[in-house]
Amino acid sequence: MAEVDIAPNFGAELKDGFKPVNAWVTNGIAWLDDVQQFYRERSVIEKEYSQKLSALAKKYFEKKAKKSSTLSVGDTPTVTPGSLESASMTTWTVQLTTLEQRAAEHERFSVQLVNSIAQPLQNLAERYEQLRKQHAEYAAKLEKERDSAYGDLRKTKGKYDSVCQEVESRRKKIESSFDHGKTKAQNQYQQQQSDMRNMKSTYLIAINVTNKQKERYYHEYVPELLDSLQSVSEAKTATLNKLWSTAAGLETETLQRSLQLLGHLSGEIPRNNPVLDSMMFVRHNASQWQDPLDFAFEPSPVWLDDDVMASDPSSKTFLMNILSKSKSSVGELRRECEGKRKEVEGAKRVRQAIREGRDKRDELEVVRSQLHQQEMLHEAERKMITAEVEVSTITAAVGDVTVGARNHAMRNETFRLPTNCDLCGDRIWGLSAKGLICNDCGYTCHLKCELKVPADCPGELNKDQKKAMKTERQASAQASATSPTDGSNGANGRPSISGSGGGSQRSGAPGLQRSDTMGSMNTLSSGYAASAHRSVSGTTVATMRDNGDGPKINTSSARQHRIAAPAPTSPFRGNGDDDDDDEPPAGGRMLYAYQANSDGELSIGEGQTFTLLEPDDGSGWIKIKPNTIGSSAGLVPASYADLSAVRSPTTHSSNNRPSSSAFSASAVSLAGSDSAGSVKKKVGPAVAPRRGAKKAVKQVEALYTYSAQGPGEANMEAGEKMVLVSPDQGDGWVEVQARAGKGVVPASWVKDV
């Protein structure tokens, strides 16, 4: 307690200050009730906290009882654990037991607050209030005595004044009396003066007495009373301090006991070695296990065969391409695996340093990084193992067939112009029809045909040599596609099925021949056949006859090929054999009617012929003049016009295109439904706005990051906003103008803005 230099004295300092002192002491005693109410409410809180801690411990004891076995030895242990618990469960039990014990400590502290603090405070307030009231009664008595003395003095002064008045009246009577009555009047006057002098003495005595009583009242009686009230207040404070100290001691003891409980818990936690849980789980789940049996070759139920790898020339070509790819990737994959393995080991060392306290990084983030590196290592190892096994398997079966091979330097290519595969002779066309082209000799093929291409690249060729080689390869491919099978039998004696173009036929059966489809693929921007028929029921492939005599083949039951129109605003180049400039056709006819929408365009009807003035420059528009008198020239969409009518055979041969006997015209029917029988007005394909025309710019936003897989595609970043050049034509790709340039991207990877 702080020491004061001069002890204050209410009696000496405050004099006649009973009323403010009494009010101050009264407020101090009343405040004791607030203090005791505080401790009662604190007791209620401690009791509620104790009950909540107990309920919490009970709740999780019940949960632990239900999950203890599962958490200790798993759902399906091979050995029953009985009453055994894992180390973590034992430590968890100590946690819950400590919580229960702490709840009991808070319960005891709650009771002590009421019995040792709150109730004594209430009794103390009542006692001090009674003592204060006694002081107030005594002060009232002193004040009453003072007022009584003042009243007696005033009465004495009144008597003195009346006696003086009587003396004056006696004097006046003497002056007015006659001679025979003067003696009597003088005697009375003298007697009255004597009484006046006596009353004066009495009055003077009363004044002195009253002054003395007043002096003692203000300098003795009231100061002593104020000092007594000061003592009461200070005694109240001293008693309150003792109770506060008791409350602090009780809480300190409660906390010390809780600290002891927590100290015991802290000593039990390090005993929970993480290895102990794993050890118990392993011992209760160990079982006899054998490696799964290796897979073995199982012949098809419809084609009896053995597990010997085929070694005919075409099979060797296929195996050679696989072996070349695998051998070239093994070294790189091994280096990649070694790098990833070092990263995983580094992450493991960091985790060990964190557990030993030598590294302050977040172990969870390190584990996440390690898992990511392990996944990448796993992917690389899978690829490496696959490549190594492919190399060893092929080498053991047919030897190293890559010796002396001249592999093509293939690159991915998106063919926006009609191009034929040099292996099977089929078309490679459309946004979804990706293919490959050799950088040196210009060899073109489907992605599916890559592994069938012989390793006979002649090396780098010039433009003329590429065209000559292209003609030779196409002739060979068409000859292979139209020639019947050699009748060779398989292992089970059944006739083999062949056909490089993907179609199969049996020996002796009438073969399918193809006629020229170059005329039907009349424009590079539309992709619709010259004799195209439309229907609302969908696209169906028309039937064809073999040489006019063979049986009718309905290919609608087979796989149907959808002809998709590429975007008219494509900036992409064509295939390698179309580098030279073709002479534009001199005219053609309209496949659909077109209504002009802006200046410079031309309105023209369906089927009307025209003269071509300016060919398509890549914008998707051509300039024509109708073959009618008085007609003016204008622009129409290239996809609405048929220019094949004026293509001459010499034009095809100059471009090294296959002759008309090499293909058959594709007839695609989009006309009215066969069942309905009604013919609806033809509607042309969607038209991109011509260059220079005003148009509303539509934007799309990239949902994911995409890297171009080949020429003609565009790179985009997730969240990037791009201009939509051409929407999805049904092939799953859209053409956009991105920051990286103009190109096509997957339609499902973008959304409209």
Automatic annotation (TrEMBL):
Keywords: Coiled coil, Metal-binding, SH3 domain, Zinc. Residues 8-277 form the F-BAR domain. CDD domains: C1_SpBZZ1-like, SH3_Bzz1_1. Residues 172-194, 468-589 are annotated as: Disordered. Residues 482-491, 514-542 have a biased composition (Polar residues). Signal peptide: none annotated. Residues 583-646, 695-753 form the SH3 domain. The keyword Endoplasmic reticulum does not apply. GO terms for molecular function: metal ion binding. Plays a role in endocytosis and trafficking to the vacuole. Functions with type I myosins to restore polarity of the actin cytoskeleton after NaCl stress. This is Protein BZZ1.
